[in-house]
Design goal:
The structure is a homodimer. Chain A is an alpha/beta fold. Chain A has helices spanning 15-31, 51-60, 77-91, 110-129; strands spanning 3-9, 38-43, 65-70, 98-101. The first copy, chain A, is globular and about 60 Å long. Chains A and B meet through strand 1, helix 1, strand 4 and helix 4 of A and strand 1, helix 1, strand 4 and helix 4 of B.
Amino acid sequence: MMKALLLVAHGSRRQQSNDEVDKIAETLKAHCIKEYHIIYSSFLELAETLIPDGIKKCVDDGAGSIVVLPYFLNSGRHVVKDVPSIVNAEKEKYPGVEFIISKHLGASDLMLDLLVSTANTAVNEFIQQD
Amino acid sequence: MMKALLLVAHGSRRQQSNDEVDKIAETLKAHCIKEYHIIYSSFLELAETLIPDGIKKCVDDGAGSIVVLPYFLNSGRHVVKDVPSIVNAEKEKYPGVEFIISKHLGASDLMLDLLVSTANTAVNEFIQQD
């Protein structure tokens, strides 16, 4: 079964922020092609591709299972209500497809490592500048 | 020299989101006490502790070096302009203290691992539910 990973970010009026999300999805493709055969980015609002279109792209590419990954740091209303509500509405259209909504990023154990690593990188670059 | 890590999040009207940030800073304390002796969370706006107060707490605790870590996914105006501008203004008050502003989280290589790990955890939990 073809597995898809759909990154869902909030979407910004600032195109550069949306481009950053698209670029992360692109980089992710090379990073986990063995685990997820199809990877797209999508947005809750303000930017293209919107979530329903992102889901359609995954299904059109042959996904039998779609992991929806909220690219959010906190468990606000968007993560708790808006994203699940949109995904559940789309789910009705594709009865043969499995949908899994993952936790948001701030809930991951790896977040601690990411924080320390980001700080350490800054310190090392600062020392090298001296 | 005592090293401090100051997490800087946006701040939300929703107290639960701010509590999540405070909790991450708390957990981080146990996680990297050898590298950073002092760890606090702070907020750009809408929530206590604000950045200047967070910096003051680090200095009062004896920090000789403060790594300011923007808890943001994208390099928007807050990361590029607002946080550096506030930190630079505070820097003037503490001439003996070294200030390092790290990149935002979305710029880290570890972000890819965090994304895949978050997705995989969701898939495993989904399988176990079946």
